[in-house]
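Long-time lurker, first post. I've been practising inverse folding by hand and with some scripts of my own, and I keep getting stuck on stretches where the structure tokens seem ambiguous. Below is the full token string for one chain I'm working on. Before anyone asks, I'm not after the true native sequence, just a reasonable design that respects the backbone. If someone could post their per-position residues I'd love to compare against what I wrote down in my notebook.
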């Protein structure tokens, strides 16, 4: 937690070196008029031209989604804290919905272990976050105020996470799971944590989809994080995080009459 007594006044920053003409732009590159989606040849020189996101097995952020209210067992809260610690020890950033409850316990654990805790708030501001949504601010290094509301915030949570871990949970957590599942995410489930996490083994077979999502179950927080990271690094990073249902020919959806070619 920030201690105002230990705060120091930073010295005045050194003046930035003058930019050379090669770093300046005379205006928009005319080549972009033909292809407005491309930055063209005058892109910033510090971009790594060799970086390929399709060949990057790095796990940067792990999201923890779970119960923010209702009855919560003290043992589950303790394991949620350990989950945050494990994520920090793995060198990953923790992403939560900046909510109370089990995600808050994970955020506290991540900070206690020296990790980075990022909260994605449904609110427009810190005032609304605290006063309207009754949510904490003390366990987060960064809070992103989306103004998207509770359900809109869920999508940001999933998109910001390489791996999503479900702990307990109610209807909101189920919504986050469904977004992650439809988008082919790697999903961890902390077993014996109650709520939606306990119901998923029965729910998943009823979904009737093959989205590429992978679900890993484990009751031990540290083992769950390790297994998820190992799976992501070995194979799952190759899968784009987008909904692409692989139906196969025998399971393909029948074409509607409106999509059928007209008779000549």
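-- Answer (accepted) --
I ran through it position by position. Result:
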């Amino acid at each position: 937690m920030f201690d105002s007594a230990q705060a120091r006044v930073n010295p005045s920053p050194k003046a930035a070196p003058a930019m050379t003409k090669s770093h300046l732009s005379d205006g928009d590159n005319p080549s972009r008029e033909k292809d407005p989606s491309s930055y063209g040849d005058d892109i910033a020189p510090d971009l790594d031209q060799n970086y390929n996101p399709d060949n990057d097995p790095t796990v940067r952020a792990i999201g923890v989604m779970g119960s923010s209210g209702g009855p919560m067992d003290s043992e589950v809260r303790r394991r949620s804290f350990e989950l945050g610690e494990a994520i920090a020890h793995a060198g990953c950033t923790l992403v939560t919905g900046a909510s109370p409850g089990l995600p808050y316990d994970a955020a506290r654990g991540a900070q206690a272990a020296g990790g980075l805790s990022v909260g994605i708030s449904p609110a427009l501001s810190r005032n609304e976050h605290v006063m309207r949504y009754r949510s904490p601010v003390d366990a987060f290094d960064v809070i992103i105020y989306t103004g998207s509301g509770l359900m809109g915030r869920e999508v940001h949570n999933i998109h910001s996470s390489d791996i999503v871990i479900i702990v307990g949970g109610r209807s909101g957590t189920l919504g986050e799971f469904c977004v992650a599942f439809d988008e082919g995410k790697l999903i961890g489930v902390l077993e014996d944590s109650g709520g939606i996490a306990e119901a998923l083994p029965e729910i998943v077979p009823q979904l009737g989809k093959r989205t590429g999502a992978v679900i890993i179950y484990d009751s031990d927080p540290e083992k769950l994080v390790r297994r998820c990271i190992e799976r992501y690094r070995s194979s799952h990073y190759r899968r784009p995080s987008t909904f692409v249902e692989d139906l196969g020919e025998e399971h393909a959806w029948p074409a509607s009459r409106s999509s059928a070619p007209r008779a000549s």
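A couple of notes from the structure itself: The chain has seven helices and seven strands. The two ends are 73 Å apart (CA to CA). Happy to go over any region you disagree with.
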